[in-house]
Design the sequence.
């Protein structure tokens, strides 16, 4: 079974389509997509991205931007640009797509994997960017692996149950899960708004039979997304940052 792992699409259809094309060309049609939240917010194509996602056999969890866009969460910590984009998204989302977002769970479990947006301890808001925060998070899920998004930074936290130690590593291009001792929290990075200074779309693929995870970066037409955003009146800063992966 080939599973595409996508996080933080953020209504960036050009990036999402580039990822899906790369996935199909490299592995054939995927058997499923697992989506780690923030399907909408920031970008210009919220309905189109949800429509595309819904064509797949899908496991998806909800992100903070999804909840703000449908009015189920206050945009408390949002900066003015994120807030403006959320308001615009709320106005354009079709009722059926609002319902789709409303029905997404905060947590899903498939086989050896727990899926959440932020962290297993606080699925909607917590950013996992430090080893200390990640170390505590391992107590909040049961499976061997946890897949997260939210920070838009590809990274892995590893927990060694023998020593109790946690460590942070980069996501390698190929990761053989059968050789992993202990447990992992894995962030594949963001499809639609990468923030690790690499503007290419990030995603991962799980080959369930081979128990192998592949991590990819894919170029997409950034200008197309940015121009669409400006035309729609979305904040200029959100369009510009796509060029820099920040
Ligand atoms: Zn996000």
Sequence:
């Amino acid at each position: 079974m080939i599973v595409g792992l996508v996080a933080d699409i953020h209504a960036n259809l050009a990036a999402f389509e580039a990822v899906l094309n790369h996935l199909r060309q490299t592995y054939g049609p995927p058997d499923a997509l697992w989506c780690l939240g923030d399907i909408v917010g920031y970008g210009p194509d919220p309905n189109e991205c949800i429509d595309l996602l819904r064509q797949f056999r899908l496991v998806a969890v909800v992100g903070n931007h999804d909840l703000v866009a449908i009015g189920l969460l206050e945009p408390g910590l949002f900066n003015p640009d994120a807030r403006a984009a959320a308001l615009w998204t709320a106005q354009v989302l079709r009722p059926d797509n609002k319902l789709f977002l409303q029905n997404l769970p905060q947590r899903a479990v498939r086989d050896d994997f727990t899926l959440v947006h932020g962290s297993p301890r606080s699925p909607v808001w917590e950013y996992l960017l430090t080893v200390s925060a990640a170390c505590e998070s391992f107590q909040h899920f049961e499976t061997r692996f946890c897949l997260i998004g939210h920070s838009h930074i590809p990274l892995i936290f590893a927990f060694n149950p023998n020593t109790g130690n946690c460590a942070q590593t980069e996501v390698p291009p190929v990761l053989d899960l059968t050789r992993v001792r202990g447990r992992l929290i894995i962030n594949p990075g963001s499809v639609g708004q990468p923030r690790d200074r690499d503007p290419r779309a990030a995603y991962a693929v799980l080959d369930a039979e081979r128990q192998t995870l592949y991590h990819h970066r894919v170029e997409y037409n950034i200008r197309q997304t940015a121009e669409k955003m400006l035309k729609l009146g979305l904040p200029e800063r959100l369009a510009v940052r796509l060029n820099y992966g920040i």
